Amino acid sequence: MRFRELLIKNHIPVMLREVVEYLNINSSGVYVDATLGAGGHSHAILNKLTSGTLYSFDQDIKAIKQCQQRFINYQNIFLINKNFSCLYDELLARKVNTINGIVFDLGLSSLQINDNTRGFSYLRNNFLDMRMNCSNPITAQYILNNYSLEELQKIFQIYGEEPKARMIAKEIIKNRPLYMTFDLVKITDKFKNFRNNRGHSAKRVFQALRIEVNQELKCLQLALEQSLKLLKKDGIILVISFNSLEDRVVKQFFKKNSSHDLVWSRLPVQNKDLPTPALRIINKKVMRPSYEEQEFNSCSHSAKLRIAIKNI
């Protein structure tokens, strides 16, 4: 079946073809899917394993329960209901000290977007929740109704890159309490820029709230550092990001661990005498989905893939 037909017939995770190709799966290796979601990447990895093992993480218990049914006939996959920032301790607890490869797909899963109890979409009127882990006590509703003007402005500016952050924050405080997604959309709609209308008025604010609720960038940084500890020599790390903030974290992490320390660069030593960097970047220029995938999978439009190999 051609790729186009697969996309139409089934839910296909973003950049699946590239993930399978560049992960270079060893059939007896140990792999990690840091973002299980609907299980698309995990399924593709499992199909390449014989005696190998896959550990798949998701902090969303609904994703875990759905995939327990999907993978009920597989004996070599372990589903772990934890945020990927816990992957090092969780794997060590299972006596896993090294891995051959790890993949991160940082996009919201279709399960979460379509869940009417979660409030991730500004196109549906639901409670302002936005928790990926429903045991987390902090919701978007709590933030909107309790954060100060300065705190709201800060998260909208930093996590949403919203140019009207202060005006929106003031309007939120004036209209408290907010309970539903459309309560917030009604406010952001007041600040539409009709001369340069780039997407929905609430897009940046919703992104900022989601990142704050789930501490996404902090967790990503921790997970990348832990992945580096776990990867064996020639192990592969792939990260698919969907916004500039995520991509910046990944890019800076890869750059830092693939170049020589500033101290070494100032010493009178030749390149051959320098210590080997921990990572080697595979794609200096970020990879994007194929035109074909972008045409038939709207979720892939903003995806960026970065890949690196463990050197030592």
Automatic annotation (TrEMBL):
Its EC number is 2.1.1.199. SUPFAM superfamilies: Putative methyltransferase TM0872, insert domain (SSF81799), S-adenosyl-L-methionine-dependent methyltransferases (SSF53335). Keywords: Cytoplasm, Methyltransferase, rRNA processing, S-adenosyl-L-methionine, Transferase. One of its GO terms (biological process) is rRNA base methylation. Pfam families: Methyltransf_5. It is found in: Cytoplasm. One of its GO terms (molecular function) is rRNA (cytosine-N4-)-methyltransferase activity. GO terms for cellular component: cytoplasm. It comes from the Bacteria. It catalyses: cytidine(1402) in 16S rRNA + S-adenosyl-L-methionine = N(4)-methylcytidine(1402) in 16S rRNA + S-adenosyl-L-homocysteine + H(+). S-adenosyl-L-methionine binds at residues 39-41, 58, 84, 105, 112. InterPro entries: RsmH (IPR002903), SAM-dep_MeTrfase_MraW_recog (IPR023397), SAM-dependent_MTases_sf (IPR029063). Specifically methylates the N4 position of cytidine in position 1402 (C1402) of 16S rRNA. Belongs to the methyltransferase superfamily. RsmH family. This is Ribosomal RNA small subunit methyltransferase H. The gene is rsmH.
